[in-house]
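Q: Here's a chain of 352 amino acids. Please give me its 3D structure as C-alpha cells.
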Amino acid sequence: MSEVRLENLIKSYDKKRVIDGIDLTIRDKEFLVLVGSSGCGKSTILRMIAGLEEISGGNIYIGDTKVNNIHPKDRDIAFVFQSYALYPHMTVYENIAFGLKMRKFDKKYIDEKVKEAAEILNLTEYLDRKPKQLSGGQRQRVALGRAIVRNPKVFLMDEPLSNLDAKLRVQMRAEIKKLHEKLQTTFIYVTHDQTEALTMGDRIVVLDKGKIQQVDTPTNIYNNPQNKFVAGFIGSPQMNFIDCDIVNNTLIMTEPVVELSEEIVEKLGNRDKVTVGIRPENMTNPNGRIKLNVKVEMTELLGSEQIAYFNIGENKCSARLNADNNIGEFLELSLDNNEFLYFDQKTGERIL
C-alpha cells in the first residue's frame, strides 16, 4: 500500500511558518499534483515527504509507517528533480544503474532492471550515450529511468518539465501519465503551471502561503472554486472578477442592472457589495441577456482563438473569442448571470 498521509504538517524558518498545519491524504496509486505560485510551499512539502527537509511539527506516514525519523534512503521513495541531476561522465546505462549499484544488487538484476526501464521510456538505443549527447526530453527520461529501477512505493517529482520547451513539455506530460498508468504506484507531482496540473492530476492541491486552499478533481477545481484565490489561479486567462454593488435586490456592474432572484438574495445575506466571477469563455454567451459594450485595450492571438482585454469599470477583464477584434474597437459582451460565481469582497470566500 502506497498511501501517503500528512498530519498537521508544519515547517518554520526563524519562527516564520512556511507550511502551516497541512492535513492531506494521498491515496494509493493516485496521481496528485501540488500547484501554487512560487514560494507557496509546494516543493518544501515534497522535500519533507522525501526526508530532505526536517519537519518542525506534525507527522508523515508512508503506508502504515511513520517516517518522521527515517532516513531518506529507507523511505522507499524515488525523487525526480527539476535539474535532472545526471552524472555527465557516466553513460545512460550507468546513470540509471547507479542507485542499484550503490545498494549492491547483483549485476544480472541491475542489467534486467535497467533494460526494462529503458524499454518503458524508449531509451534502449541511447544506453551507451553520455548525457551531453541527449536532448532535454531524453535527459528527463533518464532521470525517470533512474527512479523506475528502484521500484519505489512513491514517486516524488519536483517541477520535472520546467526546463523543457513548450512542445516537449506537452509530450513529456503524456509520457509521465502513461508511466503512472503502467507502474500503478503513487505519484506526487509539484508544478507552478496550472495547465500541467489540470491535464495530469487525478486530484489537485492548490496551495497559497503554506496553506491548502482546495483539494479536488481538476473539473471541480475549475468549475467550483472554493475561494477567489483558487478561481483566479486556475484557468488561463484567469477568471474575470467584477466588483459590484447590491441595491434593492439588484446587482449593479457599471452600466447594466441585474435583477437577482430571491434565492440568490437570501444566500448573499445583507451584503451591499460582492465580487462576481465569470470565465473568459463565458463573456459572449449567445443566450446572455446582460449586454455590455467595452473598448478593446489589447488582444492576444492563440491560433484560431483570440483573447481580447478590456475594462469593466475599474476591473481588468478578458474574453475568449473566435472572431478578430482590433485594439480600440468596441466589443459587445453578452453575459448570462447563471454563469456568475459570487465572492465575498473582504474575505474572498465563495458565497455561491
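Q: Can you summarize the key feature?
A: The chain has a mean pLDDT of 93.
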